[in-house]
Amino acid sequence: MPTLAQLxxxxxxxxxxxxxxxxxxxxxxxxxxxxxxxxxxxxxxNPYPIxxxxxxxxPISRTRLGNWVTTSxxxxxxxxxxxxxxxxxxxxxxxxxxxxxxFLELNPPDHTRLRRLATPAFSPKQMAGYASRVExxxxxxxxxxxxxxxxxxxxxxxxxxPIAVITDLLGVPNTHADDFARYxxxxxxxxxxxxxxxxxxxxxxxxxxxEALFQELFELRRRDPADDVISAIVAxxxxxxxxxxxxxxxxxxxxxxxxxx
Length: 261
Known about the structure:
single chain; mainly alpha; CATH 1.10.630.10; 2 strands; 63% helix
């Protein structure tokens, strides 16, 4: 049985979720706000007229949702490089509801600290060393393609490539590869927003399962280091509990194979 505190948390989350959906629908369908329309069903099939509307409003404009939008690559680059900007307002605490995107939603200094731990594993020299492993994985997937008849290259090759490469580089055991891909796909779906309470529950379950997988993997690499990213991160810190949180989400959500279609 859920506790009173859990029921209050669910009620609060549901209220905020459906209030936001109502606000988006109002500004999209009634006020014709371009950014609101992009979050609604019809625009997902053909967003290009809305993109043209945004371009016509100038390089930067304010939406009815209260945020700002730009169609300028230069402005985007300037904002991303300017330390005065962050992913969250000052004083706004990161999401601790069980399905936050962790590393992706942190401001400095937390983001800086975690990024510093990961940097050695993704240095130019280290990345160059991964090339042969990536090529081996790609060649194996090509070899596994059917030799006769028709084949869908997206589902049979392009979609599995990112997950296969990520699992190899992280050192995820083959026995957990399918689970890793499934959890990653679920978490990746949150990048377009939480759609319902059922979606939120699936995210929380996937997060818990993936965190358990990484905790097990971090413990394994403490005892038996290998030539993989997790071993490099474990070597860079005395405790793997914090790195496990960002590792839980960042590699999965950044994978094209995990994004919803």
